[in-house]
Amino acid sequence: MMKTELLPQESPRAEAFSLWMTSPMPMVTLVKTINVSRLLKMSKNRGIRFTALMCWCIGRAASKIEEFYLLPEDGKLYRFDKMGINVIVANKQGGISSCDIPFSADLEQFNRDYLTLTEKAAQECKSSFLEDCMIIGTSAMIQTELDCIVNQYTEKFSNPMVMWGKYRKGFFKTVLPVSFQFHHVQMDGGHAAKFLEQLQMEIQYCGKG
User: Fold this and answer.
1) Distance between CA atoms of residues 188 and 209, nearest Å
2) Assign residue 196 a region: left if phi > 0, alpha if psi is -120 to 50, beta otherwise?
3) 59, 71, 168, 174: which is deepest, by most CB within 10 A?
4) Cα torsion angle, 16, 61, 113, 154, sign
5) pLDDT tier at 208 (50, 70, 90 boundaries)?
6) What pLDDT is stored for residue 156 in this prediction?
7) What is the secondary structure of 21-53 as a DSSP string?
């Protein structure tokens, strides 16, 4: 049982569902500047791409918050028992492809899947999707430093989305402004703020223990 329809009125999101499910603009964006010094060091020491480590930490943080397993879709509310991370891949034709990567708490396994699936998307120029997973979207626009990103809202994609630009190196630390967009039926601002705090914690302790 990977995806289960819930009765909204019997779920913890009953009030939010009644308020926001039919809203023309139900998405909310929070922005937090995160210290990624630890992640950059780990990327260099272990030879793992910075973006792959970011995606893994996002999955780690999200998997600890119950609301991330919920998804409002087509006027209904669903719960998933597995999670995946979506990345946007530059393909060999000069375009982009969408690639869903199953989340694993095991970094080595997640990195293997990340490398295999993104390379396949780049070479075949085809998008791949995991229908049985709750997907968290990501978009890394590393061509320039960005202060904030506000994504467009579309009724075809109500999943949470984490976006960032190029990290900023300083004398003592490297920081990265991160924009997090979510559907108000799925969670409240407090849950989103908790996720961003948890993301910072996962990055800070990445690879330890």
Assistant:
1) 31
2) alpha
3) 59
4) positive
5) low
6) 73
7) TT-S--EEEEEEEEE-HHHHHHHHHHT--HHHH
